Amino acid sequence: MKLFYHLYGYLLLGMIALIGIDEYLNFQAEVEQYEADMISNAIQNGKSISGMISHTWAKDGKDKALELLDDASQSGTMQIRWVWLDTPSEVFSASPSTKSHLAKALNGESVSIKLQQQDGSHLRYTYVPVDVGTSRKGALELSETLLSLKEFSQKMIIRALTITALLALICGLILYFFIDRKIRIPLTNVMAQAKRIGRGDLSTNTTIIGNDELAEMAETMNNMCSRLVIAKEKINFEYDARLKTLKQLRHTERLSSFGVIAAEIAHELGTPLNVVDGRAKMIMTEDLEMADIKDCATIIKSQAEKMTGTIRQLLDFTRNPIQKKSTEDIGFHIKQVFQLLYPMASKQRVSFFLKKEKDTEVTLHADFSQLQQVLVNLLMNAIQAMPDGGKVDVSLSNELLPSSTEESRIKNQYVKIKIEDEGEGICQENFKHIFTPFFTTKTVGAGTGLGLSIAHGIIEENGGWIDIENNVLHGACFSVYLPLKEQKE
C-alpha cells in the first residue's frame, strides 16, 4: 500500500492547508465579530446606565448617583466607575499615550479600547460620556475582561482540529477502500502476471472487472501473452528447422571431407591388399609346410585387421553422430585424426607433430564427435595449404583467460589447441570473412566454404572460440580455446 500512503499523505497535507486557511479566515472574522459585539454591548449598557445616572445626579445629587453606580457595578459582570474627562490621570490610566481617544470622548463620542495589564491579561475599557449639567465633562468607564474572548478562540481552534481529524479519517477510509479495491488488488494481479511472463509462463490470463486503465492494461497483457505464445511457437519451429539445417550442413561437410579422405585411403589400402593377395596365392600354388601356411595366415589376418580398422575409422567419421558430451582426453582424439589423415598427409609429404607442455591438463567435457570434425577440417586445410610438403605442429597448453562472451574480468582455465602450418598464410583482407559461410579461397570443387564456419559454430557451442593469425615467418596459425572439465561442470 505504498501508493496509498503517498497519495494519502499529499491529500492530507492539502486538506490541512485548505482547512487551516478557511478556519483562520473564519477565526479572524468570528473574533472581530465577537469583539464588535462586546463593544456594542458595553456602549449600549453604558448609555442605559448614563440616562439613569444623569437623572439621579440632577434630582438627588452626585453622591446618590455614584452610590447607584456602585450598586450597578457590583450586580453585573462589568466594572463600572465614574471618571472626569478633563482629568487625564483618571482616564486611560493603563495607557496615557492614547490622546486621540481622549479627544473623541471629550467631543461626546463613546470610545472602546483594549489594553494589556501588567500581569499580561487584556481588558477592554469603554467610555460613555454623561451630561450631568456641570461645566466639567464626565463619563462612565466600563471595564470587562477578555477571558471570554480567549475561551472563544480556544473553542474555535478545537473545532478546527476536530473537523480536520474527522475529515482526515473519513477521507482516509474512503481512499483506502478505493485504492485497495480499485488499484491495489488489480495491480497485484497484473504484477503477478508480469512476473509469470518473466519466468516464461504465458498460459495464465488476468481478468479485471471494469473499464478503467488497469482493466485495459490487463486486457493488453492478455493479448500480449497470446501474441507471445504464437511468436514463441514460431521461434521454436524456426529454431528446430535451423538446427536440422545446421545438422545437415555439418553432415554434408563431413561427407565432403570423407570424399577427399576416402580417395587417399583407397590408394593406401592397395599395399595391404597386395600383401593379402600375394600370401593367398602362395598358399594356393605352392607346397608349403604347416608353419609357413600359419605365417601366411597370420600376415593376412594382420593386414585384414589393419584395413578393417582404417575402414571402420573412416565410416565412423561419416556417420551422423548423436550429439552427446563426455569427459575425455583431447590429445587421444588428436592422434586419431592424425591416423585418419595419414594417407592424405603422406601423399603430400606432410608430417604431423603433437607437442604437450609439461603439467598441461587436457581433459575436456565436450562433444568429441563434433571436435573431431573441427580438427579434421583444420588439419585438412593445413595439408592443402602446403602442396610442396611441410609439417604441421599441433601443441597443447593451458591458458588463464577471460571468456570471450563475458564482460566480467573473472578469468577461467582453458585448453589451447594451436595448429601451425608452413603454407603461404592468409591474406589480411580475408581475415574478416574467414568464418563466413560459403567463403573459400580454394579452387572450384576443392571446398564448399562451410568448413571453418561450421568449426566456428561447434567451438562456440562447446564454450570456446577460435583465433587466427599468420606466423612470423610463414604459414597460418589457428588457436582453438576450450574450457576445462572443472569450469564446464
How would you characterize this protein structure?
- The chain is α+β, with helices and mostly antiparallel strands and 489 residues long.
- Among the domains are: 2-153, PAS domain (Beta-Lactamase), CATH 3.30.450.20; 322-489, Histidine kinase-like ATPase, C-terminal domain (Heat Shock Protein 90, 2-Layer Sandwich), CATH 3.30.565.10.
- Helices cover 58% and strands 17% of the residues.
- The protein contains 11 helices and 11 strands.
- The strands form 3 sheets. A 5-stranded mixed sheet has the order 6-8-9-11-10.
- A hairpin with a 5-residue loop joins strand 2 (111-116) and strand 3 (122-130).
- The longest helix is centred in the first third of the chain and has 59 residues, at 2-60.
- The chain is rod-shaped.
- The mean pLDDT is 77.
Shape: rod-shaped
Largest sheet: 5 strands, mixed
Q: Portion of residues in helices?
A: 55-70%
CATH architectural arrangement of the domain at 322-489: 2-Layer Sandwich
Structural class, by secondary structure, is alpha+beta
SSE topology string: HHEHEEEHHHHEHEEHEEHEEH
CATH H-level homologous superfamily name of the domain at 322-489 = Histidine kinase-like ATPase, C-terminal domain
What is the name of the CATH topology of the domain at 322-489? Heat Shock Protein 90
Total beta-strand segments: 11
CATH class descriptor name of the domain at 322-489: Alpha Beta
Distance between the termini: 45 Å
Low-confidence stretches: none
- Give average pLDDT, whole number: 77
Using only C-alpha atoms, the radius of gyration works out to: 57 Å
